Amino acid sequence: MTFQQPRPPAPDDRPGLAVPALSLRGLAKRFGDKIAVDGLSLDVPAGSFYGIVGPNGAGKTTTLSMATGLLRPEFGTAFVHGVDVWKHPLEAKRLMGILPDGVRLFDRLTGEQLVSYAGLLRGMDKDVVARRVKELLAALDLGPDAGTLVVDYSAGMTKKIALASALIHAPRLLVLDEPFESVDPVSAANIRDILDRYVASGGTVIVSSHVMDLVQRMCDHVAVVAAGRLLAAGTVDEVRAGESLEDRFVQLVGGRNHTEGLEWLRTF
Ligand SMILES: Nc1ncnc2c1ncn2[C@@H]1O[C@H](COP(=O)(O)OP(=O)(O)OP(=O)(O)O)[C@@H](O)[C@H]1O
What we know:
Keywords: Antibiotic resistance, ATP-binding, Nucleotide-binding, Transport. InterPro entries: AAA+_ATPase, ABC_transporter-like_ATP-bd, ABC_transporter_ATP-binding, P-loop_NTPase. GO terms for molecular function: ATP binding. It is a peripheral membrane protein. Helix content is 33%, strand content 23%. The protein contains nine helices and ten strands. Helix 3 crosses helix 4 and helix 3 runs parallel beside helix 5. The protein starts with 21 loop residues before the first strand and ends in a 15-residue tail after the last helix. It is an alpha/beta fold. The radius of gyration is 19 Å and the shape is globular. Adenosine-5'-triphosphate binds next to strand 2 and helix 1. The site of adenosine-5'-triphosphate has 11 residues, from strand 2 and helix 1.
């Protein structure tokens, strides 16, 4: 594992360029002997729609968990709009909306209660929360299920209600781990519209995804991660270098298996 001394992101002096929405500095994490994230540094420009892609087990979820204050890094740190996530967690978390992967929700609440709770927890006014909850549930096609317990939601509905909880306080930075997993195409299109409008008005979105086509169409920047390291990062056009993102991903990451073996699978 490599170690880098974390340095706060310097405000860029070039006109029009501000402090990045998210700066990762030398993030590293080991689980037993397994190095999940190996000294990863990355700057996500404010106002960008940033995709993070990588093969299974690449370290995406571990990186995003450390970036958002959910998992303490062994080395390194993260800055959200210049605020150190691990030194000033409350201040940093106020700026963020997070859709974590695989974290349990308070699923004995109804969808409406869960999103309201997320807003009230952020100290928001009760009437504002009620209004936003209604609008968010309608925008995410969850209106008719507002009174259903989250434990009884489908996987896609659960993803959408968790997304609503991340959006309720209108954060400056949204960090969404696999936001489209299990979500139907109509809802996915609605979510993309919401996120496009959010970015157009100056917000920053970071999404992790395995769907290259989606990332190529939706994001303006992308980072490719494998084995806990950053293989490439930049605008989508820079990273794909004239090829499809999917082809470029396979070239960068490797790991295509030859189809020898498994002959028994053709013996039925
Ligand atoms: N809590 C944990 N305990 C032990 N090992 C872990 C833990 N969390 C992650 N790992 C390991 O760390 C590595 C990175 O996992 P991570 O979940 O960050 O990958 P990922 O890129 O999000 O994968 P996927 O695309 O499959 O969701 C994997 O080898 C995984 O087995």
